[in-house]
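[RESIDUES AND BACKBONE]
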Amino acid sequence: MFSPRTNWPRTPNPLAVALAERRAQGLPVVDLTESNPTLAGFDYPREAILESLANPASMQYEPSPRGLRPAREAIAGYYAESGVRVDPESVILAAGTSEAYSHAMRLLAGPGDEILCPSPSYPLFDFLADINDVKLVHYPLAYDHGWRIDLERLHALFGDRSRAIVVVNPNNPTGSYLSREELATLIELARSHDLALIVDEVFRDYAWAGRSARGARRVVSTAEIDSCLTLTLNGLSKLSALPQMKLAWTVVSGPGEVVAEALWRLEVIADTFLSVATPVQHGAAALLKQGESLRRQILERIRENLAFLDNTLSRGAAMNRLDAQGGWYAILRLPNIRSDEEWAIELLQAAGVYVHPGHFFGFPREGYLVVSLLPEPQRFRLGIEKIHRHVAKFS
């Protein structure tokens, strides 16, 4: 009766079982996986946000496949503030970046075609690929005092059914930005193999200083690329810390004729669903503006938690933090004496701290944990201290 594309495993993994058991026993849990900003204690301008959704024009339904023009103009204005030129006519709205990814996959790939995707990266891609009948081919990010795309390996993975390259800039969870040199190579590869670039920029405004020199060469945005078809994704979820508003977009850029064809096809795809709610489109300009104060709060929180984390690690322990340049996460490298899942379960059971194991994001080796930098400082410090004390036993 059911499609095989939805025949996903449903057996809880051991970490999920251990977490459920601990909570059932009423034992405390210091959650260092929280990535929902609305639950992280930030000061939201609630009245202004709600007021932005109360536009009387929302009572009239005005179907617009690409999205209402004022919303697209507001998005173009957001880019203009950082010196990036975007034509509102090149913007297609969606109800979240997950939907924007689905639009891109439907545009570029047929059943069984391949899209190249970074690893480590967010596991959501696997589900999106399944739902859209696309095959993911993972290309590696390599780490050596900083992250980089393994371009040689990426090139070797191209096949007759390759249709696009996904880049997350900065990557989630590695926090690594695309360098200008990497982008130049990706553009040349895309042009020579007739591929498109799909670039996810949801964390682009959360840059913080890394230790490597790559930070000075990072790519700010790909929304102006004109030499190959490029679909640049972003949205209010991270930009304005409003995941519940479900407003995202795709900026289409590249050679003129190809862009025109892509926009026509994307407009038909978007018109099929017309899923973006009218109130949030009318409120887009105000929500983008109000996001500025949230971004400042989040960056301040991230820097405070990072400073505490690095100071704690400087006291000595059998773990260290991998270098990053932005985003909401930190990656800890622990002794490779057990799997990352075993480390996560042990920290939960012995120290009461919940973290994500690296394999959740596709890390190729064991001993990596991913922690969120969003939790309130008191909770973050408690969790990091507990991790530090436990891991110090193995020094």
